Amino acid sequence: MRSGVREAVRGDLVHIIELYRQLNPQDSVLTDETAQATFDEIMENHWLHLFVLEDKGRVESTCYLSCTPNLTRSARPFGVIENVVTDEQSRGRGFGKRVVKHALDVAWGHSCYKVMLLTGSKKDTTHDFYRSCGLSGNKKRGYVMYYDTSEIQR
Questions:
Q1: Domains, the chain, ranges and CATH?
Q2: Keyword annotations for this protein (predicted)?
């Protein structure tokens, strides 16, 4: 039985999609073809990483790291962490922290000079969680624009 954080593999896709349904239940359901094509694209790009935390043979948590080449900061890339989610039944067990810390380690391995993460959550527990991972919510201000403005939640 496998345990620990690792890069996602083909067989993880169905479990990742289940976790994303918990993260964004209002999203439309992807077709299998779209999900697989996007997953394959992520897997083929060394700057993109989709991590899972597996415990006792079950995918419990996931997050996505995108590293972007950059012409500032001595040509060091920057990273963005997105889609952090742990199964609702397994929260509070440290799985999310482990997967985020792994993503940060990989970003530092890519020589990223910074890693950013945005959250739309207003919950203090969410912000406490990200601070416990070493992230700071008071260094910079984030701005977001959606293509479809009906998705903006006020």
A1: 4-151 (3.40.630.30)
A2: Transferase
What are the strands of the beta sheet with 78-86, ordered from one edge?
4-7, 48-55, 58-68, 78-86, 115-117
Phi, psi of 52 (to 5 degrees): -130, 150
**What's the rounded Cα separation, in Å, for the pair 139 and 132?**
16
Residues 3/55, Cβ–Cβ less than 8 Å: yes
pLDDT tens track for 110-153: 999 999 999 988 999 999 999 999 999 888 888 888 887 565 55
Q: Which of 145, 92, 106 is nearest to 6 (CA)?
A: 106
Select from 5, 100, 101 the least CA-distant residue to 52.
Answer: 5
Q: Which two tokens stand for residue 52?
A: 């899972």
